[in-house]
Amino acid sequence: MRPKLIPLGMTICDMVIQDIKTKKKSLIGIFSQINAVKAPIQHPKLSVFIALTEGNGKYACDLKCIRDDDNVLVMNAQGAIEFHDPQQVLELVFDLNGPVFPSFGHYRFEFLAEGESVISRKFNVVQINAGEQKLKGGAI
């Protein structure tokens, strides 16, 4: 039996930039809240960054976005990852273009490997009035 993956972190941000020479990643615009005037909310772009270790071999994976209030699945991305060495730190970047959140409330991204939850990250989608949109800058 393979060891369970060890999560090192999960971050929601505007974008992840990778330096071509060093392969280092920069997380730009880290956030835990999306502000919007009306629902449904279409966010222009966001990235989810996940770092994992202790893997051995290939794993089928899912990144799910779930509305916490009623456990409705909002979006799901599937794929596979592979570890060549258990000491390896695997850094995953999920770029989501135009994700739609159906209502205001509490949400979470959940990463699963082989059907088991490895790590999750909560965030909020909050209603603001049109006047606040100019003051807060990050609103949609």
Offer a few descriptive terms.
4-stranded antiparallel sheet; 1 helix; 5% helix; Immunoglobulin-like; globular
Description:
It is a single chain. With 140 residues, the chain is mainly beta. It has a single domain, classed as Immunoglobulin-like, CATH 2.60.40.10. It is 5% helix and 63% strand. It has 1 helix and 11 strands, in the order βββββββββββα. The strands form 3 sheets. A 5-stranded mixed β-sheet has the order 3-11-10-6-7, with no helix packed on it. Strands 2-1-5-8 form a 4-stranded antiparallel β-sheet, with no helix packed on it. Strands 4-9 form a two-stranded antiparallel ribbon. Strand 10 (105-113) and strand 11 (116-127) form a beta hairpin. Mean pLDDT is 92; it is low at 135-140.
Identify the CATH class: Mainly Beta
Order of helices and strands: EEEEEEEEEEEH
Major beta sheet, strand line-up: 3-11-10-6-7
Helical segment count: 1
Number of strands: 11
The CATH H-level superfamily is: Immunoglobulins
Question: How big is the Rg?
Answer: 16 Å
Main sheet overview: 5 strands, mixed
State the shape: globular
| CATH fold assignment | Immunoglobulin-like
β-strand amount:
over 45%
Helix content range of the residues, please? under 10%
Question: How do you describe this structure in short?
Answer:
With 140 residues, this protein is mainly beta.
Helices and strands in order:
Blueprint: E1 6-18, E2 25-30, E3 33-36, E4 41-42, E5 45-53, E6 57-67, E7 72-83, E8 90-97, E9 100-101, E10 105-113, E11 116-127, H1 130-136
Parallel strand pairs: 3-11
Antiparallel strand pairs: 1-2, 1-5, 4-9, 5-8, 6-7, 6-10, 10-11
